[in-house]
Amino acid sequence: MFFWSLVLIAVGIFSSFIYGRSRIKLNSKKQGTKSKSLPNYYAQYVLMWCLFPALIVYFSWAIFQEQIIQNIVISNFEFIEGAAYNEGLLLAEIRNVANNPSFADGKSIEIINAASHYSSLRQISQISFYLSIIIIMLLGALYASRKLKPEFHAQHTIERYIQYILIFCSSVAIFTTIGIVFSLIFESLRFFAEVSIFEFLFSTEWYPFIPIREGQTAAEGSFGAVPIFAGTFLVMGVAMCVAAPLGLLTAIYLAEYASQRVRKIVKPLLEILAGIPTIVYGFFAFVSVAPFVKAFGQSIGIDASPTSALAAGMVMGVMIIPFISSLSDDVINSVPQSLREGSFGIGANKAETIKKVILPAALPGIVGAFLLAISRAIGETMIVVVAAGTAPNLTGNPFENVTTVTVQIVVALIGDQEFDNPRTLSAFALGLVLFVITLFLNIIALQIVKRYRERYE
Amino acid sequence: MNNSVAKEKIVSLRKKRSLEDMRFKYYGFTAMCLSLAVLVFLLYTIFSKGYTAFQKTIVLLEVDYNQEVLKLTPDSSDEEMEKGKFFRVKKQAIENFFPDLSKSDIKLVKKLFSINVDKEIKDYFLDNPEVINTKQQIWVTAHSDVDQLLKGNSRRDVPEDRRKLNDIQLSYVDQLVEENRVKQVFNNFFFTKADSRHPEIAGVAGSFMGSLFTLFTVFILSFPIAIGASVYLEEFAPKNRITELIEVNISNLAAVPSIVFGLLGLGVLLNVFGLPRSTPLVGGSVLALMTLPTIIIACRASLKAVPPSIKEGALAVGATKTQAVFHHVVPLALPGTLTGTIIGLAQALGETAPLIMIGMIAFIPNIPTGLTEPSAALPVQIYLWVESAERGFQEKSAAAIMVILIFLFMMNAIAVFLRNRFERKW
Questions:
Q1: Yes or no, beta carbons of B36 and A350 under 8 Å apart
Q2: S-S: A452 plus which of A339, A365, B146, B225, CB 3.0-4.6 Å?
Q3: B266/A63 Cβ within 8 A
Q4: Looking at the DSSP assignment, which residues form a beta bridge with residue A207?
């Protein structure tokens, strides 16, 4: 269906274009006047009217066909009195039988009936899909062809349409944000209907335990997210302890001391560090750093767990070094040269100039860079999923196993995803918290950096 | 007198200060070297752990293709051959692998071979049907435990109960090595097979194809939309509240954690629109939304770099604004936008968390062939192998990382090439 309908649409586009071109030439010859725009614009006009309605039908069909068919099948299903059904499982079973007749053995007659109903509906839908695409394309072309007269300003219309398309493209970003906010809030509200928001934000017990025995549904277990937030901040703190000094000193060295040649070599190398996928850092943390941390902990008499906040945090710190160093480098470079020259002029040497003049001048920008790095560290997932633990643990000891917001989101959604229990929904509540915190940090950081830039430009 | 004391003081102070200066410079240098050292160490770790995965261990096995055992005749049809009793041939071959094996020993010997051996014996026969009723020496794949032992990845000096292979099996392996009945060859499975529960026959082909399909989706969706958005914002948008809102929105979206995009895909694409789970189509859509801000920012920069005189020239000879932009500005900015897109795609290639959210973490033992088929992706495959308890998967994950890094390197090289080759300095 996917492929052949695309072919159908492609054929439609091509023929409508040819049709539009030849038709306007014919019309203007008949009337003996020149058309207001070039023939190609008329052809494009027909093409757009042929293509876009068809695309709308195509996508809405692709999106809604399955759901509509399933609803019809379920509503016509002959439920046996007293038997309990799980709608999702039932549907899966019906689909399986419909797609693969060999699964039909041993299934109840209702299911086999429903499966044949399902396949017949699919066939009807398939045929009517092709028919409606053809009809819509023809209708579009018909509508457009009425306008194919020499006195019609096809170019103006086309340019207006192009504007609409461009506006649509740029609003995709807005739709994305709206989609994020609404999906997070909607699912979180469902979560908070079952778990109180105060328990979530202030309680220290996180046991999203779901008893599986029959009759005991959901809502057991406790959802106090404090240990998770604490773990997140602990890992982030360790990461910043590594990244802040290393990143900042690297940036200072590159901006103030290094020769052009060193800069040219080192900057791309740091970019490599920034471009390495986070799962690779996760592997590194798991294979090299975690055993090292454990051995180190044992050598100073601390019983370190094999997955520790320290290992995850250190590697995360390495990951954000290039982030901090490149942002700080920009910031330091945008400190006006006159400040440096003034400082050198009264006899200060380089280190003094940097410490007493440049860094204070660049401070807001550096703070902004740090805030962006913090937001990056909080939202980082794969390193902590691999190298930190999954068990919530309210501790300040970096040698211990902690868990973070992102880890809990992954853990909650990695298994079966039935959307009716608070354990799954808790991922969205955690995601909402994560989104709000990172958004907040970003807005502040961007504001600070912007103000700072304005001061010196 | 007083003067010289002051002079001395100044000299010593200056010495101290320049020492301080040196020290500070040294700190910066050390920090830079440390960061680079970590990079080197990281790459070293990956390559040293991963290169062994490109080799597999094979064992010489004598197989007797007896027609009685196979229940075949020399003139059986192809269909009958498909149904030959190859497992019986394999059983016999293993029973005779070493002379005088007891029943319990046979069990131990059996564990030295990969699960894939049945298929290898069968494939060999189907390729050379004339070998019926002959004894053949065939190289077959060894079990991952043997493989790891011979590569030195698992140690033999730990107590027996903590080893995968017990003492008897170890002595068998040693005997094989002595008799030259075992060797290491290039691991073709790693590049031709999809994921498997058995490390010795697990490969990256499936997840690689999954990643390619995902990237294709990302490109198809994000490239036109990003160009449209950046052309609008750069050339047409009126300076008003809404435009500003869009711009703020884009810069904030660029910093939203990737896992949140995964939640968006799960909540909207899967649950509301009902798109198929675990497919490159959904994964690609999510990653496209995620990389869109990056690509838009790069596209806008390259549009901005086109000098206004070109557009003004077009307008002066009577082009409309749309013509001036689409016939003159956009083509000139195209190399820059392509570079930005490739960098965005490289970012999308390494992204793991959103794909886990939309279910591309499922175990998929075959190679996907389309956008709407469940499939894995390279980074998720790495994650699955890192998390796996089986020792043989660790080298696989390192090797898969090598594959993804090489892939990334090539993409960036193409981007740099495009930039150097086509970018014009005005």
A1: no
A2: A365
A3: no
A4: A222
Q: How far is CA B340 from the centre of its chain?
A: 21
CB contact set of B6 (below 8 Å; sequence gap of 6+): none
Answer whether A279 sits within 8 Å of B379, measured CB to CB: yes
Beta-bridge partners for B58:
B141, B183
Would you list the DSSP string of B342-396? HHHHHHHHH--HHHHHTTTTS---S---STTS----HHHHHHHHHH---THHHHH
Q: Where are the domains of chain B?
A: 2-51, 53-193, 205-422
Instruction: Kindly determine whether residue A170 and residue B246, on different chains, have CB atoms separated by under 8 Å.
Output: yes
Q: Is A452 exposed, middle or buried (0-12, 13-18, 19+ CB in 10 A)?
A: buried
- Main-chain phi, psi angles of A413, to 5 degrees: -105, 0
Q: CATH top-level class for A222-456?
A: mainly alpha
State both tokens at B257.
Answer: 């954690």
Residue ranges, comma separated, of all CATH 1.10.3720.10 domains in chain A are 222-456
Span between the terminal Cα atoms of chain A, in Å: 57
From 2.40.50.100, 1.10.3720.10, 3.30.200.20, 3.10.350.10, which CATH number describes the B205-422 domain?
A: 1.10.3720.10
Closest-CA residue of chain B to A426: B263
Please name the member of A171, A272, A414 whose beta carbon is closest to the beta carbon of B39. Answer: A272
For the beta carbon of residue A127, count every other beta carbon within 10 angstroms: 10
Place of tokens 């920008």: A365
From chain A, the residues in CB contact with B292 under 8 A are 172-173, 176
pTM of the model as a whole: 0.89
CA distance to partner chain A, nearest, from residue B135 (Å) = 40
Cβ atoms B68, A283 nearer than 8 A? no
Q: Which residues of B touch A318 (CB under 8 A)?
A: 35, 38, 42
Q: Which of B259, B326, B352, B373 has the most A C-beta neighbours within 10 Å, making it the best mutation to test the interface with A?
A: B259
Per-residue pLDDT tens over the stretch A103-129: 667 677 777 888 888 888 888 888 888
Q: Look-up: residue for tokens 């529960």?
A: B197
Q: Which tens digits make up the pLDDT trace of A224-283? A: 889 999 999 999 999 999 999 999 999 999 999 999 999 999 988 898 888 899 999 999
Task: Find, in chain A, the residue whose alpha carbon is nearest to that of B20.
Answer: A351
Which of A64-78, A327-341, B5-19 is the least confident region? A64-78
Distance CA B246, CA A169 (A): 11
Encode pLDDT of B326-371 as tens digits: 999 999 998 889 988 999 999 999 999 999 988 888 888 888 887 8
